[in-house]
């Protein structure tokens, strides 16, 4: 009798184990409890599953996320930048890792000003541009322009390629001097001076420095923009028609 009782206990335990592990062999899993709500579907614009943290994917880069700070053309921290981190698509991160290795072989590191930019940040730019009385940062970023022309001349727009997740703003950091290379103009300067092919009053060294950055990025699968020496987009970006809106923080890519 005692042996039979032990056998029954063993069989019962086996049945419980099969149920808990979702054993195969034609078994079906139990239906969810009545109080369990299935997860809501995530819209394409809010789906960060194709993104990674740039600091983790390309640990050699230096981050100086300007839109998390107040040192930018607006003069405030920008909406959507909740942490001083950079997010980017997995494909762009893989290409940037090769670009970073290329830069390091030449004695440089890549310094990132911006990567993925949520739509809320773009909307923040639009709101700022419409306030013609706010010219706090004019002397630094648009001394040659009246703020009223920023829309017409394309400096502010309703959409940004950054929101597609495969565009970066960056420069080169010289490991010998411990300083950024002199590019003959600051990041986010609104004017012809920012054009990659501008020569004007630039020195040969400044022109050469721009070309070094451009070659590193182009050689590793990025295409430049003809109005900003710091701006590059992955040639075959994975989301060419999607403008994402999830915030810039570490939790977005966990």
Keywords:
254 residues, alpha+beta, Muramoyl-pentapeptide Carboxypeptidase, domain 2, six-stranded mixed β-sheet, two-stranded antiparallel ribbon, 8 strands, 28% helix, globular, disordered N terminus
Could you explain the architecture of this structure?
This protein is an alpha+beta fold. It has a single domain, classed as Muramoyl-pentapeptide Carboxypeptidase, domain 2 (2-Layer Sandwich). Helices cover 28% and strands 14% of the residues. It has 6 helices and 8 strands. Strands 2, 4, 5, 6, 7 and 8 form a 6-stranded mixed β-sheet that branches. Strands 1-3 form a two-stranded antiparallel sheet. Strand 7 and strand 8 form a beta hairpin. Helix 3 crosses helix 6. The relative contact order is 0.17. The N terminus is likely disordered.
Sheet bearing the most strands, described?
6 strands, mixed
Q: Work out the helicity level.
A: 25-40%
Count the domains: 1
CATH topology-level name: Muramoyl-pentapeptide Carboxypeptidase, domain 2
Radius of gyration: 26 Å
Number of helices: 6
Average pLDDT value?
89
CATH architecture: 2-Layer Sandwich
Low-confidence parts: 1-32
Beta-strand residue fraction: 5-15%
The total of beta strands comes to 8
Which shape, going by the Cα principal axes? Answer: globular
Structural class: alpha+beta
Terminal residue distance: 55 Å
CATH class: Alpha Beta
String of helices and strands? HEHEEHEHHEEHEE
Task: Explain the layout of strands and helices.
Layout: H1 2-21, E1 51-53, H2 54-57, E2 62-63, E3 87-89, H3 90-105, E4 108-114, H4 119-130, H5 138-141, E5 167-174, E6 179-180, H6 204-219, E7 222-225, E8 228-234
